[in-house]
Amino acid sequence: MSIEPGVNLEFIRCEDKPFAAGVQRAAEIGYRYVEPMVHLGRELLSEAGYFHSFSMEEDPLLMKDILERYGVRASGLSAHCPLMRPEISVPYLQNAVRFAAAVGAPVVCTDEGIRPDWMSDSQCFEVMKYTLTMALRTAERYGVFIGIEPHQSISRTTKGLLRIATLVESPCLKVNYDTGNAYLAGEDPCRGLTEVMHLLVHVHAKDIALRQSEAERGEVTGTPVGCACGDGVVDWSKVVGILAAGGFQGVLSVECGTSEQAERSLTHLRGILAKA
Known about the structure:
Blueprint: E1 4-8, H1 19-29, E2 33-35, E3 38-39, H2 44-47, E4 54-55, H3 60-69, E5 73-74, E6 77-78, H4 86-103, E7 107-110, H5 121-142, E8 145-148, H6 158-165, E9 173-178, H7 179-184, H8 189-196, E10 200-205, H9 210-216, H10 236-245, E11 251-254, H11 259-275
Parallel strand pairs: 1-2, 1-11, 2-5, 3-4, 6-7, 7-8, 8-9, 9-10, 10-11
Helix pairs in contact: 3-4, 4-5, 8-10
């Protein structure tokens, strides 16, 4: 596998469409990889067909059937959870890992989540280590990676991200690098990408519009979606160059807000990847 463009299904959220509609639209645009979101239990919007998240109480082979129907594969599963709340995150990540294995997704993408205001520094790392240890025991059995993403108060810095991604000694604990979140948090995404290359398993290709950059950079730890790749501040030629030089083989999963942005992102990234 070389470096391939993919898309996170968040792009369909603004249209109030279900999972299958998002997969179909992604395939029609030309993507070969999608990143589904999963959740535990049942919730109204997905059940009514107004939201793209997929319940892990459904048969995972139903998701696999939908992906195969439209000729796409899962680059990973979006499974964000609060690592500092093991009563939530241990069963959630264990279920997500088993689900990923069933549908052929190589990685479960997550972040540390919001830190409880009462939790000390020493406590938060010990609790995250426990959560990850339990989840990774399942991940190692199923051969699925857990990719930590820069998104919250600790992982907003590359140093913090690497600390979380090395809390447990496991071949399955990796990094899902989000260029847009890192940039908004005040990091240089290209430098950060270089520093995490030895753990990199998946990339969120998120670009940030200049207006959002001017309003929010250094004030937030991330954002749900970005603008179309090529319309913002991220230097995608440099990003692809770093990935190629580091020997990365995987998916650039676009995180944008609309179908039109997803289409323009694909065109932009394909042009750069063709040159690389």
